[in-house]
Fold BTB/POZ domain-containing protein At3g22104-like.
Amino acid sequence: METCSDLQVDINGEETIFLNKKIICKYSGTLRKLLGTSTSSSNSNLKVIFNDFPGGAESFELVSRFCYSNGQFTVVPSNVVLFHCAAKLMEVIEVLEQTEKCMQEIRSWAWSEVLLGLKQCQELQTSSDTDSWAAKLMDVLVEKLCLAIEVSPSSAASACSPSPDSSVLRFSCDSKSTESFKNGSSRIPWWFDEVLVLSPGLVATLLKLMIARKFDNLTISRFLFYYQKAKFCSAPSNEKREILETTIDTLYVLDRSCVPYKSLFSLLRLALGSNINKSVMNKLELMIGQQLDQATLDNLLVPSPLKSSHLYYVNLVLRFAKAFFSEAKRGSQVKKVASLVDQYIAEVAPDPCLKPSKFLSLLTLIPDIARESHEDIYRAIDMFLEAHAGLTNGEKLRLIRTISYEKLSAESRAHVSRNTKFQAIQTADLKQHKQLILRVEKVETSGDDEKLKEQIEGIQWRVMKLERACLKMQNQMEAIKKRTSRGSNRSLPKLCS
């Protein structure tokens, strides 16, 4: 080996390597182009700087050793990725031939070698070559997992060793049945921990291949939550977002029975603080909404976004319910959701910052047929009116009209008849309608324009309908008063006075 070092190579500013120009240029087409073929002493102290050398000093040293060993340095699975990327930039044809040959034997590699190759690909991220190689390596990785499942129980039983070379067989031993997952067993397949070295992008590719090969959905679901919990806390903000998006996107295509419903709300809390892609958030809301009958009140009491003044994220619950009712549901499911929403309405009603329009949207969210009783919404409206003294009569009346008096208990009907907030609104509304009719009639007699007359007639018709509705309401209240005056003096429910 020649000892003259007449060339300095700075690798990404992290290390300077001293080389013999003649030896390195014999194999490297890139350096030959940069330095020429001269070897005179006048060319001493030459220096080459690489700012973005793939794999850094480690991969450059591999190529250098190949050159200094006169092409005898061996390419193996553990260094093939680094070797290939460095040799491609340095234009060392002999190395490229060996790396291509090594990759042709990829299916005979050990699990640990495939995983190391993937890790190196994600660290390099330099070219389409590494993407292509990562795809090949990932395909082999999934193939090894699938083959592990097919190992017979007797073979698997003898393969439960901690050796990396036997890890493929250990998979079938540690996860030969998904029943342990369903029973809440803490035992996890060995590969869960080993693939934690992969980035969210590579994990997304891994899972897509697993799904395409009909991998057990329950295992995939468990791995996703395991990966998310293990990686999320220590990840930078951009990677946190990528982890969540990968998790949600994959869960969305799995069998819903394999996705723990409570865990979706844990993801929701993280997603609301991570500014994830809107389309991904929509998928999460859809998964939660479609199974809303499994939710609890605590699940729905999500704090509102920071810029909002009201306490709870009402719009989120409205979207959940929309997703739920977008599909045909059994009667029992609808009744569960109706009860849940009524509980939620009672919780948000006292919030003085909740807009009447949002509260009305909640009241009208559930089909009337799903509510056997209007007790809860009557109490909620009463609390809302108490907390919103500044509402107009029109706003108050729109809320009151959502109550079906036939679905109230005798005690509640008695309370309505004595509830001054309700009576004042209805009386004021009736007077307003009568005044409006007089004004319309006055305009009608003095107007000559035909179009104006048509508009006025339409208004008058609507006003008359409103008047009949108010009169009916008043009659119902009078009837309630008469019945309660003849009845016993039973105690009334505790409501907002």
Summary: Residues 1-104 form a domain with the Potassium Channel Kv1.1; Chain A fold (CATH 3.30.710.10). Residues 152-185, 432-437, 488-497 have pLDDT under 50 and may be disordered. The chain has 25 helices and three strands.
